[in-house]
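Technical annex, item 7. During the second reporting period the consortium partners agreed on a shared format for inverse folding records so that results from different sites could be compared directly. Each record opens with the tokenized structure and is followed by the designed sequence. A conforming record, contributed by the partner at site C, is shown below for reference.
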């Protein structure tokens, strides 16, 4: 019998309802190709009819050979060639119909898998920033990969194994019941009933071990991926052994859970084998008695034996398939759980496209908290006139970066409104909103792809010449020309092969290519050295000309040219004005300015 293969899962709530909900979620992906599905079922039925007919022909051949031998006639003369030819045709037909079914259904299977994975991936991108801040990348990747494997298994074996096998068993039981002693059919059905009841109950019991195995495995994978993503941090603190020990503990838990799963599987296999052995023994005993009493022929005995092989080998396989289907449902539950997870930020039913004529941005008494117990912003109000630059400064944790996240509508505000050209951003589509805003963040994260791809990401439909022009405008062209592979240079995971200044220039090139009317610079130069910071600031000032610009900064030297500066403290605006006016006011901004000037000396 087939053995379980370890698969991982990281689900927490597990219910039979959730598993069958996942199965029903898969149905629309298959049924959209109903023509192919129905044709595949027709071929399947033909294959089963051929398979059930083979023992009947085998009986006729054996009985006629026996009759010819007892009558001292040449078997070649007495045996109708019709039955032999038909026997061969049915053997071939069973295989041919099955192969045609698989070929016809292959496209359905691949498209169903592709559609489900695509929808899950798309839905993950529709989730809020809160979801992605809380997720574990390694565990999520394992959940998706495991779910994809389970989709293929579930579709194949649910549609073409369990139902058809049960149908074949019922057909054979009917033949035995009506053609021979009713006890043949009764034993077949009783064996089937006991086998299914035992398999379902024990499989349901052992799922707890399967889930524990999956969760432990998923946790170990998440730990390994997280450790590798933070490779440099591990090295900085000389914690290789510490990380190894933590992973070893997770792997030990996964090992214990896997062993428990295998032991429970052994008990299930032994019980299934015992039930089948009892059924086979009873059937053969009854058939042998019939031959001895001359109520059955040798051909009948061969027919019963053929049906036993034909029935109980698939029945044994059916138990394995049922176990694997329950395992697949357990694996797939998490995948479709992600798909059914409601998005926190959704477009309003009547949301319209954002139209930007001038680009004025206004915050009206905006309040927000990531956690209701800890407010971040309280009744913040300000406006950025079209084409002007507004800067927000303050200590870490004051809520500065939250302003940019709210402007992009990564979160919905608790109170107040955010308006762009008089349009509430909650009443426009998210896609049209984000299309109008460009971002140069503090930490530019790049895809592990070429420089060209990372620049073109600002507007994927841009022409080749537009991408090159954006790189020149961001002062990237000379640097790229010095690289052996030029624009085809792969930047490494998260862009780790580039320096901070080089990554910031890529971010600027992306924004130039996007060409939005509203710009956000979120501490875009805080991690750079002074020389690089000055060069980047000049480029930021150049691309922000005649655009509405929100600058979030820690270094006050980067915002002296702003039309207005807001000082944020504990989620409230405590000062506002131009650089000169705030210095003259001798308040919080002036104190921060003096402190930074002294530190820079």
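Designed sequence (site C submission):
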């Amino acid at each position: 019998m087939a053995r379980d293969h370890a698969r991982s899962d990281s689900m927490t709530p597990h219910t039979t309802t959730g598993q069958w909900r996942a199965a029903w979620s898969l149905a629309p992906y298959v049924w959209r190709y109903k023509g192919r599905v129905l044709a595949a079922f027709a071929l399947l039925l033909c294959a089963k009819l051929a398979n059930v007919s083979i023992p009947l022909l085998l009986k006729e051949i054996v009985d006629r050979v026996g009759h010819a031998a007892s009558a001292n006639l040449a078997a070649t003369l007495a045996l109708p060639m019709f039955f032999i030819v038909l026997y061969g045709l049915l053997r071939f037909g069973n295989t041919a119909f099955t192969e045609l079914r698989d070929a016809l259904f292959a496209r359905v299977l691949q498209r169903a898998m592709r559609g489900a994975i695509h929808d899950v991936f798309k839905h993950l991108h529709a989730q809020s920033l809160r979801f992605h801040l809380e997720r574990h990348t390694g565990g999520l990747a394992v959940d998706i990969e495991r779910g994809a494997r389970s989709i293929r298994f579930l579709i194949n074996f649910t549609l073409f194994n369990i139902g058809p096998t049960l149908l074949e068993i019922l057909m054979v039981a009917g033949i035995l019941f009506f053609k021979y002693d009713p006890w043949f059919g009764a034993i077949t059905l009783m064996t089937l009933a006991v086998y299914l009841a035992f398999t379902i109950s024990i499989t349901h019991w052992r799922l707890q071990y399967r889930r524990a195995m999956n969760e432990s495995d998923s946790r170990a994978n998440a730990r390994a991926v997280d450790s590798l993503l933070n490779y440099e941090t591990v090295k900085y603190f000389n914690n290789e052994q510490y990380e190894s020990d933590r992973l070893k503990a997770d792997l030990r838990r996964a090992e214990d859970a896997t062993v428990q799963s295998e032991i429970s599987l052994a008990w299930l296999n032994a019980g299934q084998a015992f039930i089948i052995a009892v059924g086979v023994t009873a059937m053969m005993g009854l058939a042998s008695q019939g031959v001895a009493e001359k109520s059955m022929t040798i051909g009948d005995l061969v027919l019963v034996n053929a049906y036993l092989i034909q029935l109980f080998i698939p029945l044994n396989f059916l138990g394995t398939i049922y176990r694997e289907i329950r395992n697949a449902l357990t694996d797939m539950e998490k995948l479709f759980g992600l798909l059914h997870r409601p998005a926190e930020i959704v477009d309003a039913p009547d949301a319209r496209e954002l139209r930007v004529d001038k680009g004025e941005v206004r915050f009206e008494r905006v309040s927000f908290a990531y956690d209701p117990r800890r407010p971040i912003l309280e009744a913040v109000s300000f406006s950025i006139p079209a084409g002007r630059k507004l800067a927000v400064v303050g200590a870490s944790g004051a809520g500065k970066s939250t302003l940019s996240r709210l402007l992009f509508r990564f979160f919905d505000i608790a109170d107040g409104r955010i308006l762009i050209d008089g349009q509430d951003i909650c009443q426009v589509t998210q896609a049209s909103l984000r299309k109008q805003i460009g971002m140069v963040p503090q930490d530019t994260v790049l895809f592990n792809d070429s420089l060209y791809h990372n620049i073109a990401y600002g507007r994927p439909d841009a022409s080749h010449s537009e991408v090159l022009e954006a790189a020149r405008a961001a002062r990237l062209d000379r640097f790229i020309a010095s690289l052996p592979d030029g624009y085809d240079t792969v930047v490494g995971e998260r862009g780790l092969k580039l320096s901070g200044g080089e990554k910031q220039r890529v971010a600027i090139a992306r924004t130039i290519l996007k060409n939005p009317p509203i710009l956000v610079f979120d501490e875009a130069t805080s991690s750079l050295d002074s020389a690089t910071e000055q060069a980047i600031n000049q480029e930021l000032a150049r691309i922000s000309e005649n655009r509405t610009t929100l600058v979030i900064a820690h270094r006050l030297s980067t915002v002296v040219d702003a039309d207005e500066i807001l000082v944020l403290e504990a989620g409230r605006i405590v000062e506002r004005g131009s650089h000169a006016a705030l210095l003259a006011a001798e308040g919080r901004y002036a104190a921060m300015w003096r402190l930074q000037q002294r530190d820079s000396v």
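The chain is about 65% helix and 10% strand. The chain has two domains: 16-340, 345-436+548-601. All partners now use this format for quarterly exchanges.
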